[in-house]
């Protein structure tokens, strides 16, 4: 029983990490029809920004806060300076964002090296808390609580603010919103800022649970984030949350109770099944 509880909580921690990455990706695609592969670069930049600040000040909280700010600012710069000129042109968008991902990852390797760098974290995060006999690492609770707070804050923002309503309406029917005379360009920039901030937050927290940051962590997390987005439904914030929980738990259970690497296989098979049975995803809308 204690093993199952440990797998469940750690799986929810992994799901929280996937959700933080996938939610921004989903909103960006749903509103702007952009597959933003550079999202992985924001993950890595967030991790290394946190490392630099923690190394200089010793404050993890400050490191995470600065990482969020850097991710948001860089996302806005990318959207306004580069992507804004390419809306509606899918191939140039993909080439640009993939190129940015590769270039930024290579730049980080050249500055910090290819080896992982240890991220100093508060001692209590590396300790465990027992739940029904299961020793749960405290850093998993940090991930889960952070993801829940982000989900609640984003849900309130999308439901109760003017820009949130514009974003929701734009995801449902961008042409209608534009026809009503609403300038959705500001909403585009805001969504990119939110996506960059959440990606940077996820990158910093990934460094926290691994006690290290590495140049490749953005790419590896990005793959599963896209899987979560597709399973949940492109443009569906709640769908991303649901899919993240399913993927995180399935990975943990399959990797422990099955063969090594079975978790990744199960997730890919689930993705294939969703695409065959419900191509729009669990909570996505079918194309009209």
UniProtKB/TrEMBL annotation:
Would the keyword GTP-binding turn up in this protein's UniProt record? no
The answer, when asked if Manganese is one of the entry's keywords, is: no
A GO term, aspect molecular function:
transmembrane transporter activity
GO biological process, any: amino acid transport
**Compartments it resides in:** Cell membrane
Which membrane topology describes this protein? Answer: Multi-pass membrane protein
What's the superkingdom here? Bacteria
- Record keywords: Amino-acid transport, Cell membrane, Membrane, Transmembrane, Transmembrane helix, Transport
Report one GO cellular component: plasma membrane
Show the stretches that span the lipid bilayer: 6-27, 34-54, 60-82, 94-112, 141-159, 187-209, 221-249, 256-277
Describe the family membership recorded for this protein in Swiss-Prot or TrEMBL: Belongs to the binding-protein-dependent transport system permease family. LivHM subfamily.
Name of this protein: Inner-membrane translocator
- Say which species the protein is native to: Thermobispora bispora (strain ATCC 19993 / DSM 43833 / CBS 139.67 / JCM 10125 / KCTC 9307 / NBRC 14880 / R51)
């Amino acid at each position: 029983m204690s093993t199952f509880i440990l797998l469940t909580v750690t799986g929810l921690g992994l799901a929280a990490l996937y959700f933080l990455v996938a939610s921004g990706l989903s909103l960006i695609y749903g509103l702007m029809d952009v597959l933003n592969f550079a999202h992985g670069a924001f993950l890595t930049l967030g991790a290394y920004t946190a490392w630099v600040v923690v190394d200089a000040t010793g404050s993890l909280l400050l490191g995470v806060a600065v990482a969020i700010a850097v991710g948001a600012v860089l996302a806005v710069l990318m959207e306004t300076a580069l992507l804004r000129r390419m809306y509606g042109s899918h191939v140039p968008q993909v080439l640009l964002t993939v190129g940015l991902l590769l270039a930024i990852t290579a730049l980080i390797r050249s500055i910090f090296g290819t080896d992982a760098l240890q991220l100093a974290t508060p001692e209590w995060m590396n300790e465990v808390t027992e739940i029904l006999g299961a020793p749960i690492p405290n850093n998993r609770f940090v991930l889960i609580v952070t993801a829940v707070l982000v989900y609640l804050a984003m849900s309130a923002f999308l439901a109760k603010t003017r820009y949130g309503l514009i974003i929701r309406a734009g995801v449902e029917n961008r042409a209608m919103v534009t026809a009503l005379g609403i300038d959705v360009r500001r909403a585009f920039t805001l969504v990119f800022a939110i996506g960059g901030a959440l990606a940077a937050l996820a990158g910093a927290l990934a460094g926290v649970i691994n006690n290290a940051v590495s140049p490749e962590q953005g790419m590896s997390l990005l793959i599963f984030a896209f899987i979560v987005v597709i399973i949940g439904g492109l443009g569906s914030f709640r769908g991303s949350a649901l899919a993240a929980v399913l993927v995180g738990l399935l990975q943990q259970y399959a990797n422990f109770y099955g063969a090594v690497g079975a978790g990744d296989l199960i997730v890919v098979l689930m993705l294939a099944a969703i695409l065959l049975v419900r191509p729009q995803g669990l909570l996505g809308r079918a194309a009209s």
